[in-house]
Design goal:
Elements (H helix, E strand, L loop, with lengths): L3 E6 L6 H14 L3 E4 L4 H4 L9 H12 L3 E5 L7 H6 L26 H18 L5 E5 L14 H15 L2 H8 L26 H27 L6 E2 L1 E2 L9 H5 L6 E3 L9 H15 L5 E5 L18 H11 L2 E6 L25 H15 L12 E4 L2 H6 L12 H15 L3 E4 L10 E4 L7 H12 L3 E4 L22 H4 L1 E6 L6 E3 L5 E3 L3 E5 L3 E5 L5 E8 L2 E6 L2 E2 L1 H15 L11 E7 L5 E7 L5 E5 L2 E5 L4 E5 L3
Helix pairs in contact: 5-8, 6-7, 6-8, 10-14, 14-17
Bound molecules: beta-D-galactopyranose.
Organism: Glycomyces niveus
Protein name: Beta-galactosidase
InterPro entries: Beta_galactosidase_Trimer, Class_I_gatase-like, GH, Glyco_hydro_42, Glyco_hydro_42_N, Glyco_hydro_b
Length: 641
C-alpha cells in the first residue's frame, strides 16, 4: 500500500479546463487521495429540494480514471443561502445572544431539528448516488464540527439542554445538588426555568456553565452519529471527520473519537511562534492517542501561509517538509493539505495550497513533489506504531471549568499549563501519549498531571491505582481540587489525592509579583501555596522554606508534587528526575531542537525520524549509532537490517 497523500480538492472554484490540469499535476506530485464535496451543498442543491449532481459525477469519474481515491464529504458544514432565508430560526445565536446571519460558513444551530433534517437529506442523496462509485474510498462527514458554532444559544438548544440535563440528573433535586444552587438563591423549581447560559449581571453558576459546554459538545457528536447512520445504510466504507487536535478544546474528543472509524485531524502552525513545531507534536500525539495508537489521517495542514492569524508568514524553505514528516513520524499514515489549489477569490484566497498562486515554478510546488516522492519511498513504514511509556493527561470538562471567571488566579489556563508540560517532555525527547484521567493508564510508567483541577472520583481512583501499582506521576498545582460537578474536595488541597502526593495545602497564594525564588536557584511563576508535607520528602523550597517540590512514595510508585510552576530550566530538571524514577528515557541523545521519534512494526522493523528544527547541523546518537542530520532537514534512519 502507498502512504496516502493529497488534500481538499474544490474543483467547483475552477473552470473545467483546470480539472484536466489538476489530474495531471496530482499524478506528477504523487497525490493518491483528495477530499471532495466539503463545501458543495449550494451546488448540489441550488434550491431546496432541487439537486444537481452531473458536475460532480464528472469530478468523481475523473478521479477514478486517474487512480485517485475520493474521501467523499457530506457538505453539511456550510448550508446554502436558501437555508438561512427559509429557516432563520435554524441559524446560530452567539454567546452574547446575537442572532447571526448567513454570509460565511457553519452558521447553523447544531440543535436545530430543521438543520438536522436538511443535513441528513443531502447526506442521504450523496450516499445513495455515490456509495458504490469506484473512486470513493472513505467518507468525510461534515467539516471540523463546531469550528465556528460549537455553542449556539437558541431556543432549540435550550430545549435540548433541558432534556440532556434530565437524562444526566434524573430530577431537579439532582440538578440543584450538582450545581450547588443553594448558593445565591438559584434553586430551580421547574425545568422551564433552566436556560442556555446567556450573559448574566455577574459571575454565573459554574456547574450550569460547565454542563452547557458538555451538552454543546455532546450535541455535535449526535449530529455526526446521525449522519453516519444515514451513510451506513448505503456504504460500509470507513467514516471520519476532521478534528482539530492542536487548537480547539471545545469538543470532547474523547467522546467524539468513539464515534469515528478512523481518527483524522487538522493542524495549523502558529506562524509567529518559533516553537510551533512543539504544538504540532502535541496535535499529532493527541490524534494518535484518540485512536488508541492506531495510524491516523492528517486531513489538513498548510503548505505555507494561512490567512487567519493576523501576520501570516509563508513557511521557510523545507519547513513544510519537516512539518509533514513530523506528523508522519508521530503515526499519521495519510498526509493531506488544505487545499489542492490556492483560491483566487473568497475568504481564503490568502491561504496557501499545494498549487500556489505562483503556479508550478515555485518553492511550494517543488516541495509538494518532493514530499510525494519521499512518502512513496517510505511505504514500508505504513501501519507501524509509535510506542509511548509516558502519558500527559487532558480532560475537556477540566479545561472548561477553568474558564470560569472567579478562580484563585486568572493568569493561567488548563491549555497553557498542559502546553508547558508537554513542551518539557518534548525537550526531554520523551515520546508521550495524551490520556484521559479515567482512561487506561496500565501501559504507562510515567504520567504527567498538568492542572487537572476538575478530577472525577473515578479519575482520582485511577491515578491512585496507577501510583500504587508502581507508576510515577508528576502533579502540578491546581490538580485534584474539585470533582466532576465542580464541587471542591474538602479537608485540604489537593483533596482528590492528598494521600497519593503526601502533601496537604490549606491556602493558595498566587504570586502578586509573578515570581518566587527557589532554594535550588531557579524560580517559580504564577502560583504558590502553603503546602505541608504529609509524608512526602521535600526536594526544593521557596527562599522562606515553604516546600516547592515534594516527592512521595505511595504503594509501589512515586508521586512528584509541585506547589508552583517552575521556570523552564527548573522544570526540565524536575521532569528528568521524575523520568528516572519512572524508568523512562529519551528516544535518542539529540541536541536541543532536534526531534527524534521511533515508528516500529510488531515484527521488529523500525525507523528513527530525526527532525532538525535548528539552523545547525546535528548528530543524533541512538543505540550506539551516530546519525548526521543537516540543519533544517529530516533524516529517516532505518534501524533494522
Ligand atoms: C480549517 C478548515 C478548512 C480551511 C482551513 C484554513 O479549519 O477545515 O476548510 O478553512 O482551516 O486553514
Amino acid at each position: 500500500m502507498a502512504i496516502v497523500y493529497g488534500g481538499d480538492y474544490n474543483p467547483e472554484q475552477w473552470p473545467r479546463e483546470t480539472w484536466a490540469e489538476d489530474m495531471r499535476l496530482m499524478r506528477e506530485a504523487g497525490v493518491n487521495r483528495v477530499s471532495v464535496g466539503i463545501f458543495s451543498w449550494a451546488l448540489f442543491e441550488p434550491e431546496e429540494g432541487r439537486y444537481e449532481f452531473a458536475w460532480f459525477d464528472e469530478v468523481l469519474d475523473l478521479l477514478a480514471a486517474n487512480g485517485i481515491e475520493a474521501c467523499l464529504a457530506t457538505p453539511t458544514a456550510s448550508p446554502p443561502p436558501w437555508f438561512a432565508a427559509t429557516y432563520p430560526e435554524a441559524v446560530m445565536v452567539d454567546a452574547d445572544g446575537r442572532q447571526l446571519t448567513h454570509g460565511s460558513r457553519q452558521g447553523f444551530d447544531p440543535s436545530s431539528d430543521v438543520y438536522i433534517a436538511k443535513a441528513l437529506q443531502i447526506a442521504e442523496k450523496i450516499a445513495e448516488r455515490y456509495a458504490d462509485h469506484p473512486a470513493v474510498g472513505l467518507w468525510h462527514l461534515h467539516n471540523e464540527y463546531g469550528c465556528h458554532n460549537t455553542r449556539s444559544y437558541t431556543k432549540a438548544a435550550t430545549a435540548k439542554f433541558r432534556t440532556w440535563l434530565r437524562d444526566r440528573y434524573g430530577d431537579l433535586d439532582g440538578l440543584n445538588a450538582a450545581w450547588g444552587t443553594a448558593f445565591w438563591s438559584q434553586a430551580y423549581s421547574s425545568w422551564d426555568q433552566v436556560y442556555a447560559p446567556l450573559p448574566t449581571p455577574t459571575i454565573p453558576n459554574p456547574g450550569h456553565v460547565v454542563d452547557w459546554k458538555r451538552f454543546s459538545s455532546w450535541q455535535l457528536v449526535q449530529n455526526y452519529r446521525a449522519e453516519a447512520a444515514v451513510i451506513r445504510k448505503y456504504s460500509d466504507k470507513p467514516m471520519t471527520t476532521n478534528f482539530m487536535t492542536g487548537s480547539h478544546p471545545e469538543i470532547d474528543l474523547w467522546e467524539f473519537s468513539g464515534a469515528v472509524d478512523i481518527v483524522s485531524t487538522d493542524h495549523y502552525l502558529a506562524g509567529e511562534d518559533p516553537q510551533a513545531h512543539v504544538n504540532l507534536g502535541f496535535a499529532a500525539d493527541y490524534a494518535r492517542s484518540l485512536g488508541a495508537g492506531k495510524p491516523w489521517i492528517l486531513m489538513e495542514h498548510s503548505t505555507s501561509a494561512v490567512n487567519w492569524q493576523g501576520r501570516n508568514r509563508a513557511k521557510a524553505p523545507r519547513e513544510m517538509l519537516r512539518n509533514s514528516l513530523a506528523h508522519f513520524a508521530r503515526g499519521a499514515d495519510a498526509i493531506m493539505f488544505f487545499q489542492w489549489r490556492a483560491s483566487k477569490q473568497g475568504a481564503e484566497k490568502w491561504h496557501s495550497g499545494m498549487v500556489p498562486h505562483a503556479g508550478t515554478d515555485s518553492k511550494i510546488w517543488r516541495e509538494v513533489c518532493e514530499l510525494g516522492a519521499t512518502l512513496k519511498s517510505l511505504a514500508e513504514v505504513e501501519g507501524s506504531r509509535v510506542q509511548a511509556e509516558t502519558a500527559i493527561l487532558w480532560d475537556f470538562p477540566n479545561a472548561w471549568a477553568q474558564e470560569h471567571e472567579a478562580r484563585p488566579t486568572n493568569e493561567f489556563t488548563a491549555q497553557g499549563i498542559f502546553d508547558a508540560y508537554y513542551a518539557a517532555l518534548w525537550r526531554a525527547g520523551i515520546t508521550a501519549d495524551v490520556a484521559e484521567p479515567e482512561g487506561d493508564l496500565s501501559k504507562y510508567k510515567f504520567v504527567v498531571v498538568p492542572a487537572v483541577y476538575l478530577l472525577s472520583r473515578k479519575g482520582a481512583e485511577n491515578l491512585r491505582q496507577f501510583v500504587n501499582g508502581g507508576g510515577t506521576v508528576l502533579v502540578t498545582p491546581y490538580s485534584g481540587i474539585a470533582d466532576e460537578t465542580d464541587t471542591v474536595y474538602l479537608g485540604g488541597y489537593p483533596g482528590a489525592f492528598r494521600d497519593v502526593v503526601g502533601v496537604r495545602s490549606e491556602e493558595f497564594y498566587p504570586l502578586i509579583g509573578g515570581r518566587v525564588e527557589l532554594a535550588s536557584g531557579g524560580h517559580g511563576t504564577i502560583w504558590s501555596e502553603a503546602a505541608e508535607p504529609a509524608g512526602a520528602e521535600v526536594r526544593d523550597t521557596y527562599a522562606d522554606g515553604t516546600p516547592a517540590w515534594l516527592v512521595n512514595r505511595f504503594g509501589a510508585g512515586t508521586a512528584h508534587y509541585l506547589t508552583t510552576f517552575p521556570d523552564p530550566d527548573t522544570l526540565d530538571r524536575i521532569v528528568a528526575a521524575a523520568a528516572v524514577d519512572a524508568g523512562v528515557a529519551a528516544v535518542a541523545e539529540a541536541p536541543v531542537g532536534v526531534e527524534v521519534v521511533r515508528r516500529a512494526h510488531d515484527d521488529g522493523r523500525s525507523w528513527l525520524f530525526c527532525i532538525n528544527h535548528t539552523d545547525a547541523d546535528a548528530t543524533v546518537k541512538a543505540a550506539g549509532v551516530l546519525i548526521d542530520v543537516p540543519a533544517g532537514e529530516v533524516v529517516v534512519h532505518r534501524e533494522h537490517a
